[in-house]
Amino acid sequence: MTDEKKSNLAKGRDSFDVDVGGTVVPFFNRNVTPYPTEAGGPKFDLVPVTKQKDIMLNNARHFAQQEYDRIMELVAVLQKQANDIKRRLEITDAVHAAEYQFQLSVGHCYWLVWSKRKEKTLLVHMGPTEWATGKPEDYDYITKVKFLGDHTWEEINEG
Prior knowledge:
By secondary structure, this protein is an alpha+beta fold. It folds into 2 domains: 1-43, no CATH class; 72-156, no CATH class. Helix content is 31%, strand content 22%. A hairpin with a 5-residue loop joins strand 5 and strand 6 (153-156). The longest helix has 49 residues, at 49-97. The radius of gyration is 40 Å and the shape is rod-shaped. The N and C termini lie far apart (82 Å). Mean pLDDT is 84; it is low at 1-5.
C-alpha cells in the first residue's frame, strides 16, 4: 500500500484518501456505507423513532424492574434480620427479669418458666422432659433460651 492510501480523512471503516492531481480526495467504500453515496444508490428508510423509543422504554422498564426486585429481596433479608435482633432483645429482657440462683455459662441452654406458686418468671436448667419424676406442676414452660457470648439470649425453637 502506498503512502497516499494510508491517510483516512473520511474516517470510515473501509475508507482511505487518494491524491488526485495534488488534491487529497476522501474515498468511501460504497459497499460498506449504511446510506447511499450517489443519486442512483439503494433506497433507505428513516429510522422509526417512535418504535425505537417504545423498545428502549420497554427494555428500561424490564431491567429497572429486575433491579427493583433484587433490592426488595435484600430488603426482605434485612427486615428478617432486624426482626430476629428485636426478638433476641425481647428474650434478653425477659431472661434478665427472671429469677435464677446459679452461675450462667456461655453457649448453654436454659428454660424460661412461669412459676404459679411464686408468681414470677424463673430461669431453670431443666426442660419439661428432662425431669426424672416429671416436671414440677407449678411450672409453665415459656421457651428454651441460649446464653450467647455477647451477653444476649437467643430463643431456641426445637423441631
